[in-house]
Write a sequence for this structure.
């Protein structure tokens, strides 16, 4: 059994009910809209609501958001780990991504940065989440040869968990996410076997739009939960802000299926067909047309449904460039242009009106 950790008013792990999580996609600096969305998600059933913080202005907004919502708040720090000091008094959990720690102050070892995070978390009674993401692994991990059965994602999570243990900090959970549900399933199984006492937050990143995004999440999460693995979960869906509660509905459906024993069969998804992965968007999204763009990609590519092609649609420059590398064709959004890639190669930047015909051209070229 996992150990219990406290996140604001809730306890996770240790046999407590699996907590559902969601994330705000409003601009964090728009503190009124963000607080309203946090409260709405909380009242709908989100035990934890995550907010993205990248700048001192976002951090300042968080103080106001805290006063306006009862939600248990988790903050997502990507590159600027030093912002933890400013945000910790106002949040209940801090998520850091081991793959992004190297960006700021590259000469400072990651262990020193994590030590700072642990000190701040301890001082402000915050939990931490080690949030490892397959698409944004620490460059040092990408070169690590697979050790026995350990993927770089599992290796990174274990390394950080062991480091937090060495600091005698136990109020943390771990997530191992990626866009391939079967890779997520295996990574979490392996981690849970090796570190059975560490609470796990489950999720498939860039699962995409419903219904496909729900199917991919079910494929990873239902078997894990049925095996007793997982203490919190998020079903990340590419939906407009007004429909974000669908993430909670999908999470409830997953828990219900596990309870009833009606878990999804792996053959419900065929990875050798067209696979559109898209991020759920968050405060970092660079153009409000992102969700519309993802939907347009799905509509325009229906003719290629049987083609084994992975298309990634990402909302911003923080994760867009890296997380489209593995796709056959990748689109990541800037404020007025969409960047189109084939694998790791940038093909060009196009306006929101030009991008779909360009994408179709590329698909036809690949098919011929
Ligand atoms: S790709 Fe960017 S906009 Fe999309 S969820 Fe990730 S950080 Fe947010």
């Amino acid at each position: 059994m996992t150990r219990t950790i406290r996140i604001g008013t809730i306890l996770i792990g240790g046999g407590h009910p699996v907590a559902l999580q969601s994330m705000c996609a409003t601009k964090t600096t728009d503190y009124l809209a963000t607080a309203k969305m946090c409260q709405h998600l909380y009242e709908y059933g989100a035990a934890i609501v995550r907010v993205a913080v990248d700048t001192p202005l976002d951090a300042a907004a968080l103080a106001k958001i805290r006063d306006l919502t009862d939600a248990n708040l988790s903050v997502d720090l990507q590159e600027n780990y030093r912002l933890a000091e400013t945000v910790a008094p106002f949040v209940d959990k801090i998520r850091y991504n081991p793959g992004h720690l190297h960006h700021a102050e590259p000469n400072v070892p990651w262990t020193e940065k994590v030590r700072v995070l642990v000190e701040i978390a301890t001082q402000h009674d915050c939990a931490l989440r080690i949030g490892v993401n397959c698409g944004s692994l620490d460059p040092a991990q990408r070169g690590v040869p697979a050790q026995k059965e350990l993927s770089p994602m599992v290796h990174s999570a274990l390394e950080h968990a062991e480091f937090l243990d060495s600091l005698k900090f136990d109020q943390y959970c771990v997530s191992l996410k990626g866009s391939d549900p079967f890779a997520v399933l295996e990574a979490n199984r392996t981690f849970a076997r090796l570190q059975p006492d560490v609470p796990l937050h489950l999720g498939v990143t860039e699962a995409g739009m419903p219904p496909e995004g729900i199917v991919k999440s079910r494929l990873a999460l239902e078997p894990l939960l049925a095996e007793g693995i997982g203490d919190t979960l998020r079903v990340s869906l590419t939906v407009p802000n007004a429909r974000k509660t669908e993430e909670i509905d999908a999470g409830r459906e997953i828990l219900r299926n596990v309870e009833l024993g009606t878990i999804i069969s792996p053959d419900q998804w065929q990875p050798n067909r067209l696979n559109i992965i898209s991020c759920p968007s968050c405060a970092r999204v660079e153009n409000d047309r992102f969700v519309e763009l993802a939907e347009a990609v799905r509509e325009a590519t229906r003719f290629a449904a049987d083609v084994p092609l992975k298309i990634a649609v990402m909302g911003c420059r923080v994760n867009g460039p890296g997380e489209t590398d593995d796709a056959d064709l990748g689109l990541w959004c800037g404020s007025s242009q969409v960047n189109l890639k084939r694998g790791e190669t940038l093909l060009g930047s196009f306006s929101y009106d030009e991008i779909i015909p360009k994408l179709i051209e590329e698909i036809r070229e690949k098919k011929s």
In short: The chain has twelve helices and 15 strands.
